[in-house]
C-alpha cells in the first residue's frame, strides 16, 4: 500500500511560468495574446491564399499549408495555458492535463521537424530536377510524405508515453517552465527517470538529427546545382525560391537544439533558456507565415489579388 501511495502522491503541478511572480501580469498577457492571435490569423491567411489561388496549388505550397496547420495546433497547445497563468496568476495544472500537454507538444514538434525536411526535399527536386519536378513530386508522393511526417509524430508520442509512464512523482511539484515539457518533469521524478531520460534524449536526437540531415544533404545538392548557374542573377533567383524555407529552418532548429540537445544532468530552466523556448515554441509559429509572405513573390501576388489590386493575374 505504501508503494502505491508514493506512486500517486502528486496529482497537481505548479507551473512557474515566465517569472516567479505570484501576481497577474496584464502587460505580458496582452503581449502573448497578440502573438497568439497573429499566429492563428497569419497561418489562416496562408491557408486561405493557398486554397483560393490556383497558382499556389503546387507541391511547395501543399507542404506550406500543412506547416501552417501544424503551427496553429502547436501554438494552441502551450499559449492558452500561459495566457491563463499570466492573467490570473493561477499556476496549478492537473497531472493528467500536464502529461497531455507534454504528449501533444512533443508529437507536433516532431511533425514540424519532418515537415521542414519534406519541404527541403521538395526544393531539392525543384532545383536539381526541374523538368521532372511535377512527375517526381506527384500528388501521391506528397500525401505519402505528409503521412510519414504524421507517423513520426505519433511514434514520438508512443515513446514519450512509455517513458513518462515509468515516472513516479513524490514531490516537489514545481514545474520550472512555462508549460509541461519533458526535462522539467524528469527533474521532478523521484524514481523511474533513468530509462525515461535516455529514451527521451535519443528521441530528441533522432527528432533533430534525422530531419536536419535530410535538410543539410538537400541544401548541399541545391548549392551545388546553383553554383553551376553561370549568371549571378540566375543564381540569386534560384536560391530565392528556397530562402524562406532556409530562414525558417535556421530559426527553428537553432532554438530547438538549445532547448533539447542539452546535457540533462546539468540542464536548468534559467531565464535565458526560457527565452529560447519562447522563440522555439511560440514565436516561430507566428514568424513562419510572415517570413513566407515577405520573402515569397507568389504569396505576395496572391495577397495583392485577394485585396483586389488590379494587374495581378
Characterise this structure.
The chain contains eleven helices and three strands. It is mostly helical and 313 residues long. The chain is globular. The termini are far apart.
In brief, what are we looking at here?
With 313 residues, the protein is mainly α.
Count of helices?
11
Shape: globular
The helix/strand series, from N terminus to C terminus, equals HEHHEHHHEHHHHH
Content of β-strand? under 5%
Structural Rg: 21 Å
Tell me the number of strands. 3
The helix fraction, in percent, is over 70%
Structural class: mainly alpha
Average pLDDT reading: 83
What brief labels describe this structure?
313 residues, mainly alpha, three-stranded mixed beta sheet, 11 helices
Write the layout of secondary structure elements.
Blueprint: H1 2-7, E1 12-15, H2 26-52, H3 59-88, E2 92-94, H4 95-128, H5 133-136, H6 139-165, E3 174-175, H7 182-188, H8 193-227, H9 232-260, H10 271-294, H11 297-306
Parallel strand pairs: 1-3
Antiparallel strand pairs: 1-2
Amino acid at each position: 500500500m505504501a508503494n502505491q501511495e508514493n506512486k500517486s502522491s502528486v496529482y497537481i503541478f505548479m507551473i512557474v511560468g515566465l517569472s516567479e511572480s505570484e501576481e497577474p501580469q496584464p502587460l505580458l498577457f496582452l503581449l502573448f495574446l497578440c502573438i497568439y492571435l497573429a499566429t492563428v490569423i497569419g497561418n489562416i491567411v496562408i491557408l486561405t491564399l493557398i486554397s483560393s489561388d490556383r497558382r499556389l496549388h503546387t507541391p511547395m505550397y501543399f507542404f506550406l499549408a500543412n506547416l501552417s496547420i501544424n503551427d496553429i495546433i502547436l501554438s494552441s497547445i502551450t499559449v492558452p495555458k500561459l495566457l491563463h497563468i499570466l492573467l490570473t496568476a493561477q499556476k496549478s495544472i492537473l497531472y493528467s492535463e500536464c502529461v497531455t500537454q507534454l504528449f501533444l507538444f512533443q508529437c507536433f514538434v516532431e511533425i514540424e521537424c519532418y515537415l521542414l525536411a519534406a519541404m527541403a526535399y521538395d526544393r531539392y527536386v525543384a532545383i536539381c530536377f526541374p523538368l521532372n519536378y511535377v512527375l517526381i513530386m506527384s500528388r501521391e508522393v506528397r500525401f505519402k510524405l505528409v503521412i510519414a511526417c504524421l507517423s513520426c509524430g505519433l511514434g514520438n508520442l508512443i515513446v514519450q508515453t512509455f517513458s513518462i509512464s515509468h515516472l513516479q512523482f513524490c514531490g516537489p511539484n514545481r514545474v520550472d517552465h512555462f508549460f509541461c515539457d519533458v526535462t522539467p518533469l524528469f527533474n521532478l521524478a523521484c524514481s523511474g527517470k533513468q530509462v525515461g531520460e535516455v529514451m527521451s534524449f535519443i528521441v530528441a536526437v533522432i527528432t533533430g538529427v534525422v530531419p536536419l540531415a535530410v535538410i543539410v544533404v538537400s541544401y548541399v545538392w541545391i548549392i551545388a546545382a546553383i553554383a553551376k548557374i553561370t549568371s549571378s542573377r540566375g543564381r540569386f533567383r534560384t536560391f530565392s525560391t528556397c530562402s524562406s524555407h532556409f530562414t525558417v529552418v535556421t530559426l527553428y532548429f537553432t532554438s530547438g537544439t538549445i532547448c533539447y540537445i542539452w546535457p540533462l544532468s546539468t540542464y536548468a530552466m534559467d531565464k535565458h533558456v526560457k527565452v529560447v523556448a519562447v522563440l522555439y515554441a511560440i514565436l516561430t509559429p507566428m514568424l513562419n507565415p510572415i517570413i513566407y509572405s515577405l520573402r515569397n513573390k507568389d504569396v505576395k501576388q496572391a495577397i495583392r489579388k485577394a485585396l483586389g489590386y488590379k494587374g495581378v493575374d
